[in-house]
Specification:
The chain is α/β, with parallel strands linked by helices. The protein contains four helices and seven strands, in the order E-E-E-H-H-H-E-E-E-E-H.
């Protein structure tokens, strides 16, 4: 599903070469791949990249013993950073876990305990609008933010990432998507990709598309 997103930052952590004002801090947000990047123009404020691997097993990365899936750059981040080896998700389903990560609250506190059905016309099925997201807080603090990939926090316009604090968005609003263009599937898994709120045609392998978008955004800032 995802080999090694840290390819977007080839410089090894700890190197003195920082580029312009960038200091990337992995805060581990992907699911087919969702990458949230937050960048500040103000000196002294850290840049943030959150990588979420949806359904990633504990032993699916090299630093936890995986032998058949190379993850050298992720392993480097673990080797040069901090490993929270006793951290656990707050729910076994993907959307409630995302809701908790986005809000910093247990999902049962605000009734988001199940995966939402893909209902673009339903303004009740999604991350409750009365919940403040980390993207909103970062925006208020002067950050530019993007979410790339799977959203799965509501398909109605009111739940769109641009309405929940993200400056930019590229991806799909449902709980998953076909990897290859033209492959048949349910409406949720063949929904049109979006760049912010504009439709984008899928022309190649999904992981390549999303990875390139994330890398381009990091390079831009």
């Amino acid at each position: 599903m995802f080999a090694d997103t840290s390819q977007v930052q080839n410089r090894a952590p700890g190197s003195s070469e920082t580029g312009s004002t960038m200091r990337l801090i992995p805060y581990i947000l992907i699911s087919l791949f969702i990458l949230t990047s937050s960048f500040s123009a103000e000196p002294g404020k850290p840049n943030i990249v959150v990588i979420l691997a949806d359904d990633l097993g504990y032993a699916d990365v090299g630093f936890n013993g995986c032998k058949d899936i190379p993850t050298p750059n992720i392993d480097s981040l673990a080797r040069h950073g901090v490993r929270c080896s006793s951290g656990y998700v707050s729910h076994p389903f993907c959307s409630p876990t995302r809701a908790a990560l986005m809000t910093g609250r247990y999902q049962q506190r605000f009734g988001h305990e199940n995966n939402p059905t893909f209902l673009p016309e339903d303004t009740k099925v999604g991350l409750p609008l009365n919940q403040i997201t980390v993207a909103q807080l970062l925006k208020d603090a002067g950050y530019t933010t993007i979410a790339v990939g799977k959203w799965h926090l509501g398909a109605a316009p009111c739940f769109h990432p641009n309405e929940r604090g993200f400056t930019d968005y590229f991806g799909f609003l449902g709980g998953g998507h076909q990897y290859l263009p033209g492959v048949k599937g349910s409406s949720e898994y063949t929904v049109t990709l979006l760049r912010n709120k504009e439709p984008v045609e899928q022309t190649e392998y999904m992981t390549d598309v999303l990875s390139r978008e994330a890398a381009a955004y990091i390079r831009k800032y």
